[in-house]
Amino acid sequence: MTDTPEPIRLNKRMADLGLCSRREADAWIERGWVKVNGQVAPMGFKVGPADRIEVDKRAQGQQEQRVTILLHKPVGYVSGQAEDGHQPAVTLVQPRNHWRGDGSRQRFAPDQLRGLAPAGRLDIDSVGLLVLTQDGRVARQLIGEDSGIEKEYLVRVSWPMGGQERTTDVQSVFPREQIARLRHGLSLDGQPLKPARVDWQNPEQLRFVLREGKKRQIRRMCEAVGLRVVGLKRIRIGNVVLGQLPQGQWRYLGADERF
Q1: I need a labelling partner for 91 at 20 to 30 A (CA). Which of 34, 50, 161, 231 fits?
Q2: Which positions make up the signal peptide (predicted)?
Q3: What's the pLDDT tens digit per position in 86-136?
C-alpha cells in the first residue's frame, strides 16, 4: 500500500510546474485567472498531483510582456538594494546604456523597470554578467532552492608567501593539493560546499564553475586556501554568456536564449 501525497498549496504547485513564481500565482488566483478541475480556484486552495490546473490566456499574455535583462555590472554597484551610498545595478538600465549590438527587437519602455530585480548576486567588488528579470519563472530557475544552474567565473589571484605577495606565475608555486580542496572539501557557514570545477586559466587566473552561490563564496573559498582575489568576473550563467557585452551596458535576453 502506497501513501497518498499530501495536498499542497496551489501557488506552490504552479511554481513547481514552472508555470510562474508563487507571487505571480497568487496574483493570478486573486484575479480569477486559475482554474482547478474546471472551477475557479480561491486563494489558499490546495491541490493533489491528479488535479488539473488551467491558466487564463490573459495571465500568459501578461507573462510574455515581462523582460529579462543581461547587464555587465561594473565594480562599485551593488546587485540589489542601495547600501552604504552605493547605487544598485538596476540604475544602469536606461536607454543610453543599451548595447548597440543587442540583436533583440525589443525596445525600452519605462514599465520594464517595474518589478525588475536581480536573479542572483554579484558583489560590489566583482564585475560581469548579472541577470535582472520581471519574470518569476526565470528567477526561480536561477535562484530557486533546487536550482543547479552552472555559473562560470574568471578569478585573478595572488598568493602571500614569505612576507611578500606573489602576483605573477602563481600557478607554478601554488600547491596542487590546495586546488583539489577548492574543487571539493571546503565548508562555509558550517555547511560543506558542492563540488566545483576549478582550473588554471592562465598562470595568474583561475576558472571556477559553481552550482551554488553563497555570499562572497569564491573570495571566501580562496581565503580558505591562502589565496587573495585580485579580480573576479562572471562570464556565464547556464547557457547564457557575457560575450562582447561592454561593461556598464545591458541587453535583452533573446527570444531563442535559455539558461
Answers
A1: 231
A2: none
A3: 899 999 999 999 999 999 988 898 888 988 999 988 999 999 999 999 888
Which tens digit of pLDDT belongs to each residue from 39-69?
Answer: 999 999 999 888 999 988 887 776 667 899 9
46: which strand partners? 9
**What CA–CA distance (Å, rounded) separates 1 from 21?**
34
Q: How far is CA 107 from CA 15, 25, 64, 241, 249, in A?
A: 29, 27, 14, 21, 15
Query: All 3 cell numbers of residue 80?
Result: 540589489
Per the residue annotation, which of 3, 123, 146, 256 is the catalytic one?
A: 123
pTM: 0.79
Q: How far is CA 212 from CA 111, 144, 198, in A?
A: 31, 10, 14
Domain positions in the chain are: 8-63, 65-147+239-252, 151-237
What's domain 151-237's superfamily in CATH?
A: Pseudouridine synthase (3.30.2350.10)
